[in-house]
Structures are given as structure tokens and as C-alpha cells.
Fold 3-oxoacyl-[acyl-carrier-protein] reductase.
Amino acid sequence: MATGAMLRGKAALVTGSTQGIGLAMLKALASAGCNVTMHGIANDLEKINGVCKQIAKESGVEVTYSDANLLSPAAIRDMVKQTHSAFGRLDILVNNAGIQYVSPVHEFPEDKWDAIIGVCLNATFHATKAALPYMMEQGWGRVINTGSMHALVASPFKSAYNAAKHGVAGFTKTVALEVATKNITVNAICPGYTDTDLVRNQIADTARIRGVPVESVIRDVMLADQPTKKFVRPEDIGALVVHLCGPHSDSFTGACLSIDGGWVAR
């Protein structure tokens, strides 16, 4: 059973939540009492179902799963509708799913550009548009978007991702203003490099390609611009999500909250 229940009875949808940051967010919301919908690509459906059952058992909540294609507005609308149908309400939407591709602009594949903008930015719009009517009807809601530090600062060779995440920041502020009097808040969380399997795999690959120790990649590449020289912990991001949905969060809205070890303080 969950140790806390400040969100008991509420329902949340977290996109891109089968692993990494999204999974940490989902687990944190479940531990706080939320019924949750996990979303992601079903590479191993048996494993995903096992994780859902484990979360349900440990937190005492209901857990459903969606593999909606985020490049399809209709599929996104169906996912939101199905979440509401499963739990009888939809209180919290976390737009977390994202993809990445690295290339100079003059060589950037157009299909990769379209896919990144589609998943990171367009899907955030479509899911938010579909979820807001439920929140308005209930008189309460929380929309949380994963922005990344690249919603606030840029890095070379990541033009599509930077453009999408800067767009998420602007979208977050706009929607926050539109629903400010409806007891709905809209915020973006902007993590720095986070200790996930995806990042760890990138470290190993970079070390192998460059022929340098893993420690050098962590220090000189991954954390070069992160002043604390430590990865962000996924569970800290999950805790921030829960706080933004908790009883002391009403005045947090339209904010892009850095959780990046000081990256954007420079």
C-alpha cells in the first residue's frame, strides 16, 4: 500500500511512462494515491503488464495501459477518452513523451524533424486539448509538460528538439493564462541530464566510440554544463510532479521549473 494518499481517488495519464523519467512520474503519482494510465510503445507487452500489476499492488491503485500513436491526433483523443472512461475522471495529464535526433540543420532529415515536432510538441497540444474539457467539468485539473533544460537554453545539433521544447514552454504559459480562473494549473518541468537507462546507454556508447573511460564521458561530456556534477534523480522529478498536483500547488502555474543541477543558472 502507498505511504501517502494526498491524491487518493484522482486519475492521471502520463505519456511516455514505460521507462525513465515518465515511469518515475507514474510511480510517484500512484504512490500518492492516483489511478494511472501508463503509455508507451509496447516492445514487450508482457513486461509492461507486469510492471502495471506491480505498481497497482504496491500502491493500491488501478493501472491501465495505452500504446497510442502520438503522431495520430485521433489516437491521442482516444487515449484521453479511454483514461476518463476507465476511472470516471481525469484530473492530471503529464505530457512527457519525447524522442531525439542529433544532426546539423543542413543535414537534418525532414522526417526526423517532423517526428520530433510531432511527438514532443504537437502531441502535447492534442492531449491537452482533449483533457481540458474533463478538467473544466470537474472544476480541477493539473497539466504538467516535460520541457527539458532545452526548453530554456539551446544546444547545437538538436534543432528539432530545441524548437519543440521551446514551443512546449510557450504553450505551457499560454494555456496557463487561458485556464487561470478555472482551478486548473499548467506547468512545465525542465530536467537536466537524468540518471535513466537511456542516458546510461548513451554514456556507454560514447565511451566506446571515443575510446575513453566512462568516468570521462560523465564528467567531460554529459555533466560538463551541470554545475552540481551529478545526474538528476528520476524520483526527484516524480516528487516535483506530485507537489505540483498537491494541496499547496494552486499558485504554481505558467511556470517552467528547472530541475537541472544548476544548468540554466549560468
Summary: The longest strand covers residues 184-191. The chain has a mean pLDDT of 94. The chain has two domains: 11-192+233-260, 195-231.
